[in-house]
Amino acid sequence: MTISSVPFITLNRFENGFKENFLNGVTKLVDNTQFVGGPVVAELEEKLSAKTGANYTVGCANGTDAIQVALRTIEVDKDDIVLLPDMTFWATFEAVVNVGAKPVTVDVNRETCHWDIDTFKEAVDKFNPKAAIMVHLYGHASPDTMAIRSYAKEKGVLLVEDGAQCFGTKVDGESILGTALIATTSFYPAKVLGASGDAGAIFTNDENLAKTARVLTNHGRTTHYTHGLVGWNSRIGSYESLFLNHSLDHIDARLDSRRVAINYYNEHLQGLPLKVKLSASNVEENGYCAVAMIDPSLRGALIETLKGAGIGSGTIYPGAMSLQEGADKYMHGKIDNGNADYISKAVLNLPCFAYITQEELAYVVETVKKHFS
Ligand SMILES: Cc1ncc(COP(=O)(O)O)c(C=O)c1O
Question: Which of 24, 41, 150, 324, by CA, is between 20 and 30 Å from 297?
């Protein structure tokens, strides 16, 4: 078969029988009127704990809520200062503002696209924050993750880890979601572990934090009609949980196929102005996205060539947080070395999704090479 297009991402390369199993399960949920909560959610939380190594998993409505729940769980309150990376998805910034706290954006390292320990220390020493949100973008992670955790602990800074993109990623051989003080993820359908709609989760090894997180996601309930906290409704849906339960049975194969794709790009696109990044050597990435860097002046033309060849691409993300119009009125401070801004103009994401084929990869590589020849 000759390939003439490759989507940036596609969500429907399901394993044989996956869709049928899910739909049969939906029928049972409807027959049993299990619309909210129930065994399907308990099963998901157990499976997620087993997979991540976290003692406690609390499902919730989406990845943005998960961060908000985590911040509220560690008692981030009105006017508390919270650090976040200048290079992330806007939801990280929103979560800080939505709990009433004051965001400080901290620049990332230009090579790794993540925080480094020196900039993190500078930010902590300068702003004395109550909390910080480390984001594991692209399914990569900072090579300094453990050093950042240690410094935060030493300084009494409560560290939330936004793992919306890092399900399955390891640092120094350790599961990120299983070893954080409190971590979050998103099951938005385009994530490596995507649901059939919006969903998210909070992970921790601390029983008290887990209890608080669960209470917050369910109207602050201590019993059905008593409310120990003001929370909100951020319960995870049953259909989404069912879909995730089936997806978890295939997650290793899905992640492997993504990692194969990224390694293929890296290997076959050497010596070109487009450099496909691999994560740092102490980080095992999950294959969430293929990240390449290119001189910003060359990016537009390559995107056009890819488009002309029917190939989708992405620019995740095309603007630093501190430069968003919506940030102005909330910014408490920033450390800006120009790196997030540069990365946002230089990043180019190639097609990457579970079970992308060799033919599709070869077509993308051939098109990129031809563009530069
Ligand atoms: C880094 C990051 N944080 C938070 C979120 C928010 O997740 P959700 O869309 O499930 O609310 C996302 C999702 O795109 C993300 O990529």
Answer: 324
- Among 105, 160, 188, residue to substitute to test ligand 1 (most atoms within 8 Å of Cβ): 188
* 0.85 surpassed by pTM: yes
How much is the pLDDT for 1?
64
Domains of the chain: 18-248 (3.40.640.10), 251-372 (3.90.1150.10)
What is the overall mean pLDDT for the chain?
98
Give the position, in ligand 1's atom list, of the atom nearest the Cα of 199. Answer: 10
Residue 208, both tokens: 């008290």
Q: What is the pLDDT of residues 146-160, one digit of tens each?
A: 999 999 999 999 999
Pocket lined around ligand 1, Cβ cut-off 6 Å: 62-64, 88-89, 91-92, 135, 162, 164-165, 186, 188, 198, 200
87 CA to centre of ligand 1 in angstroms: 13
The pLDDT of residue 2: 86
